[in-house]
Design goal:
193 residues; mainly beta; five-stranded antiparallel beta sheet; four-stranded antiparallel beta sheet; 1 helix
């Protein structure tokens, strides 16, 4: 009798519990990626040990770029790093609604630019810019990422640049060079979420 009572109690308790579905949430994935001539955006990671700061690379292959380095991250993250401290390279990320992430203010979708070097006084000679999704789920649609050489300064061209992109738990990378001039001064990447 006690056994029957215990089974009935378990059945009534489990009827009150909300049991989540067993399916996994949809994974974020980039589709329809377009890259400029001479550059590509590839998912590739070779573990090189601990995370190195300010290189826009997921060194430890955990899906996060430059974590532990004072750079914010999120389920979406875009980071650039370049080799010439004298040069001003700009990262411009346009979200699915057509808004460009600006320093100090989030787009409606939540993209936020937390590093704008060398203009940002907190860069401490680290050549890095970073845009991340501060919270929530990313909007579905077309994203555009432009990396542009604003000023060469006293640096010698070409300027070597690395772009790191995080989408969900995957990181992507591209390495390319920028020089003064119309076509050589910027690289534009686009993808759809």
């Amino acid at each position: 009798m006690q056994r029957l009572f215990a089974i009935a109690a378990i059945a009534s308790v489990s009827a009150c519990l909300e049991v989540p579905g067993t399916g996994k949430p949809a994974e974020l994935a980039m589709r329809d990626v377009s890259a400029p001539d001479g550059a590509s955006l590839e998912q590739a990671c070779t573990p090189s040990g601990v995370e190195m700061c300010f290189d826009a690379i997921d060194n430890n292959c955990n899906g996060v770029i430059d974590e532990g380095c004072g750079v914010h991250t999120g389920i979406l993250q875009f980071a650039i790093a370049w080799d010439a401290a004298e040069a001003d390279v700009n990262l411009e990320v346009t979200d699915a609604a057509g808004e460009v992430a600006q320093p100090g203010e989030a787009t409606t979708s939540g993209l936020y630019k937390d590093r704008d070097c060398p203009r940002d006084g907190g860069c401490f000679s680290q050549n890095v810019e970073n845009v991340f999704l501060a919270s929530g789920e990313p909007e579905k649609g077309r994203y555009r990422v432009v990396v542009k050489l604003e000023k060469l300064g006293t640096a010698t061209a070409p300027v070597k640049v690395r772009l790191g992109v995080r989408v969900g738990q995957r990181s992507y990378a591209s390495a390319f060079e920028l020089s003064p001039g119309d076509k050589a001064s910027e690289k534009a990447f686009e993808f759809t979420l």
